[in-house]
Automatic annotation (TrEMBL):
Superkingdom classification of source: Eukaryota
Source organism: Chrysemys picta bellii
PANTHER family tied to this protein: NXPE FAMILY MEMBER, NXPE FAMILY MEMBER 3
UniProt record similarity statement: Belongs to the NXPE family.
Start and end residues of each NXPE C-terminal domain: 333-557
Entry protein name: Neurexophilin and PC-esterase domain family member 3
Regions crossing the membrane: 7-27
Database matches in SUPFAM superfamilies: E set domains (SSF81296)
Pfam families on file: Neurexophilin, NXPE4_C
UniProt keyword Membrane present: yes
InterPro entries: Ig-like_fold, Ig_E-set, NXPE4_C, NXPH/NXPE
UniProtKB keywords: Membrane, Transmembrane, Transmembrane helix
Length: 561
């Protein structure tokens, strides 16, 4: 009897061990959900959102890196081609160009065309720029990135210019003269064409030049691994692709912990040694990064005033060809396509925002709006959510006027110090959870943290956000949505490789095009930062933020005209 009982006991133990092994295997299969499975789920959702009559093109998935192989409808493909055409940049001649033959702003010059003519407010001013190399020889091709503005320091007035590349070493810059008095011209070389070519290469070939990391923890065991939109190599990864938007995000799998044990996201750092010695010569402070180009002749003109009626008509220009979209006068921004109110008193802001919920979504440049309003309006008190400094989410409340302000950063990629995994939210998903209505205001910006990635990554993100905005406005047409554009910033040799104004300019062009045609409003932070006399800064100073807030609140509480 005992031998039979022992055999039965051994048999039961073997069955128990097998059951445990099968259970562990199934958990590991769920934990390491295959990337193609997730992509298929996303594809089903995306195609389900499209009209049944819209044909789609399915491309082969690249392992753990799918920004190059998205599922696009014909309409989306056409839009993407149009966007790429809008940001196409002239390339230098094929072949390696030595530094000495690259653009030298010190040898280059500009001249005001017909500077002797009597100008009136509203006239066009044309400036011709002639680029030369470090030997003083004329350049025979274009592709340089130039920024230009007109300004009157005593009047604290300024406006941007429109640059046209003739692709032969000559550039035309057109300004609209918008105020009377002496008006000066300033032209700067941001990057030579040879440097732009390097920036293009980095964007396509080195999307990993900013890397991210996540901390995984379970009990006393913790591990940190590298994360990104696309991870090279054959190491096991954790797939954190968002199931609703299809936004891809991956981390190398910890050796001992599960993917579910991730607790935060953070900026890892910046890759070094990205350039060859010859390429680094194209990125030198005071040599060829944001260096002024001097005039050959006078650098200013005198502008005569117009009558009151003519000036009013000039300020209220309409149509897509209006440029610039605004200008500074006495340090106050004057948009040319809409009316603006200047909210100089805190009571005016409180009255405007009374009864409203304001959502700020995006990066640190729109967090500045939240911080400005919370600091400037005494009745707004920040509610301590225990969030990390400069990261959020943040919330301010004005109980007296029933006002609620909320800030939340956008989802990865984002170069913040540490964001808890539970607080990593995509703007599109957040918008889908907002009811909306006449007392709901939404302000969005998203650009700076996408400058190191191929443009397809950015287009995908904006397409998801746009879809959610359209759905929100469809169910709640009274909801107000405002888009804050990109802005210029101070540049040096290292910053240029990650956050160059050229990258921002390209993303800003895409942003404006993708959000045009739907019922959103724009605050033109680009022109407002470029036209101002203050030094360029990723986070503009308060006087510029104040003008941005005035433009923003003018959409919330427009003048009765």
């Amino acid at each position: 009897m005992w031998p039979s009982f022992c055999r039965l006991q051994v048999f039961c133990m073997i069955l128990a061990v097998l059951a445990i092994l099968v259970l562990v295997y199934n958990f590991r299969q769920l934990e390491h959900l295959d990337h193609n499975t997730v992509s298929a789920l996303n594809w089903i959702k995306e195609t389900g959102d499209q009209q049944s009559s819209s044909p789609t093109t399915k491309t082969t998935q690249k392992h753990y890196c799918d920004y190059e192989h998205q599922t696009l409808s014909k309409r989306e493909q056409a839009e993407e081609e149009s966007l790429f055409a809008a940001i196409q940049w002239p390339n230098p001649p094929v072949g390696k160009i030595p530094f000495i033959r690259s653009t030298d702003p010190a040898h280059s010059n500009f001249v005001i065309v017909n500077s002797h003519v009597r100008f009136k407010v509203g006239d066009q001013l044309e400036v011709s720029v002639h680029m030369k190399d470090f030997q003083g020889k004329p350049k025979q091709y274009g592709g340089d990135y130039i920024q230009a503005r007109i300004h009157s320091p005593l009047l604290k007035a300024g406006a941007t210019g429109r640059v046209v590349d003739d692709q032969n070493g000559f550039y035309k810059i057109f300004f609209t003269l918008l105020w009377p008095g002496e008006v000066r011209v300033s032209v700067s070389l941001v990057h030579p064409s040879e440097g732009i070519q390097v920036l293009q290469r980095l964007r396509e070939e080195r999307p990993d030049r900013v890397y991210f990391k996540s901390l995984f923890r379970s009990g006393s065991t913790s591990e940190t691994t590298v994360c990104n939109v696309c991870l090279p190599g054959d190491l096991p990864v954790c797939n954190f692709t968002d199931l609703y938007t299809g936004e891809p995000w991956f981390c190398y799998k910890p050796r001992k912990l599960s993917c579910a044990s991730r607790i935060n996201h953070a900026k890892g750092g910046y890759q070094k040694s990205l350039l060859t010695p010859s390429e680094s010569l194209f990125f030198q402070t005071d040599v060829n990064i944001k260096v002024p180009i001097l005039p050959s002749g006078p650098d200013s003109v005198t502008v005569e005033p117009l009558g009151f009626t003519e000036s009013a008509n000039l300020d209220r220009s309409q149509g897509p060809a209006v440029f610039p979209l605004g200008y500074y006068y006495h340090d106050k921004w004057r948009p040319r396509t809409s009316w603006i109110r200047h909210f100089n008193k805190t009571a005016d802001i409180s009255e405007c925002l009374q009864g409203k919920v304001v959502h700020f979504f995006g990066d640190s440049t729109i967090r500045q709006w939240f911080e400005y309003l919370t600091t400037f309006v005494p009745d707004l008190v920040e509610f301590n959510l225990g969030s990390p400094k400069n990261v959020g989410p943040f919330m301010s409340v004005d109980l007296k006027h029933n006002v609620l302000l909320k800030f939340r950063c956008h989802g990865p990629p984002i170069r913040f110090t540490t964001v808890f995994s539970s607080e990593l939210r995509y703007i599109a998903n957040e918008l889908n959870g907002i009811v909306g209505g006449r007392n709901t205001v939404i302000a969005i910006t998203i650009w700076s943290h996408f400058s190191t990635f191929p443009v397809e990554v950015y287009i995908r993100r904006l397409r998801n956000i746009r879809r959610s905005i359209v759905l929100l406005l469809d169910r709640s047409p009274k909801t107000l949505v405002v888009i804050r554009t990109a802005n210029v910033q101070e540049l040096g040799p290292e910053v240029s490789l990650f956050n160059s104004d050229w990258y921002s300019f390209q993303l800003d062009t895409i942003m404006r095009k993708m959000f045009s045609g739907i019922a959103v409003f724009f605050v033109d932070a680009w022109e407002m930062s470029l036209a101002h006399y203050l030094p360029h800064n990723l986070h503009p100073q308060d006087v510029i933020i104040k003008n941005q807030i005035d433009a923003f609140l003018s959409f919330v509480c427009p003048l009765e005209t």
